[in-house]
Amino acid sequence: MADVDHDGLSDALEARLIEQFRPVWMVSSNDCSKVPARFVPDAAVPRVSAEDGTIYAQARPAAAGDVEVHYYHLWRRDCGEMGHALDTEHVAVLLHPDGAKWKAMAWYAAAHEDTVCDAGQVSRASTIDAVEHGARVWVSAGKHASYFAERLCNHGCGGDRCEQMRELPAGELINLGEPLFPSVAWTHAPQWPLLAKMSRSDFGEARINRLGKLPETDIAWATPEKRSSQAAILGVNAGLGGAAVGANSGARATNTAMVVASDKAGGALGNAARHAGGALGKSYRGVRHGLVKVLGNGAPR
Ligand SMILES: [Ca+2]
Ligand SMILES: [Ca+2]
């Protein structure tokens, strides 16, 4: 079994999963940085070779036989108000084996990650219709924050816009390997925080636990503790939950980014979701079983 990045997953499995769950990217037609860039592979300092929609990926083992895949969209520059060269953005998905197939349990989209404006989101895969294939991801113009819904695009600290959006044609997918055995020379470059994003999981126990308890219809903020400081920045009190709609939006506003469709969680799925929420143990394994149970009871197509 060839395993060029020495993480225990075969090259063939990594290639298959990376391709199967490749997201569909929605990008802005007036982005100053055009589209995600390709970088010269053997340059230790990141140097753009083309702005051609190349996406970089990483697949690595997670707990209990699961696999976590990161998709990096890397840009020539961030063109926000405090713009800078190079921009390091990503989304992630947690996969579990189901017989001969693989299914997604949960997705994470980074938006202003590691800043006070953090508007990252987590979602059950079924909520955003991305159990057996990639999620659709809206990328804000110039800032390149990633969102699972177009109408979340004005979050962050309020400067994000998704205007004149178009689907990015599928470009090349390049496996970055792992931090100790990267396939390119620039993963450790201090010019950008790529190594940190490659080195950590986006599905820690606390986040997975919150996800397990989330209503089936909701996308959640990945770092709800940051949302209150953000509200202060905007001078809005209850406001940032304003994207939430539906009967329970008031109660959910602080922790929940939005309700996708209030009538979606019906029947067996709704019951399974409630059951999973109630049965969740404190451990990752327990939560994982809960999420698998939800998926196994007929997630919507
Ligand atoms: Ca491998
Ligand atoms: Ca790998």
Describe what is shown at a glance.
With 301 residues, this protein is an alpha+beta fold. Helix content is 22%, strand content 27%. The strands form 4 sheets. An 8-stranded mixed beta sheet has the order 12-4-5-6-7-8-15-16. Strands 10-9-1-11 form a 4-stranded mixed beta sheet, with no helix packed on it. A two-stranded antiparallel ribbon has the order 2-3.
Topology summary:
Layout: H1 11-20, E1 24-28, E2 38-39, E3 48-50, E4 55-61, E5 67-78, E6 84-98, E7 101-109, E8 121-124, E9 136-139, E10 146-147, E11 165-167, E12 173-175, E13 177-178, E14 181-182, H2 194-199, H3 205-213, E15 218-221, H4 224-234, H5 249-252, E16 256-259, H6 267-279, H7 284-296
Parallel strand pairs: 1-9, 4-12
Antiparallel strand pairs: 1-11, 2-3, 4-5, 5-6, 6-7, 7-8, 8-15, 9-10, 13-14, 15-16
Helix pairs in contact: 3-7, 6-7
The protein binds calcium ion (CA) (2 copies).
Task: List the keywords.
single chain; 301 residues; alpha+beta; eight-stranded mixed beta sheet; four-stranded mixed beta sheet; 27% strand; globular; disordered C terminus; binds calcium ion
Task: Assess the beta-strand content as a share of residues.
Answer: 25-35%
Written as H for each helix and E for each strand, in order along the chain, the element string is HEEEEEEEEEEEEEEHHEHHEHH
Bound molecules: calcium ion
Shape: globular
Overall tally of structural domains: 1
Give the low-pLDDT segments: 234-251, 261-282, 296-301
How many separate helices?
A: 7
Distance between the termini: 33 Å
Range of helix content? 10-25%
Strand count, sense and barrel status of the largest sheet are: 8 strands, mixed
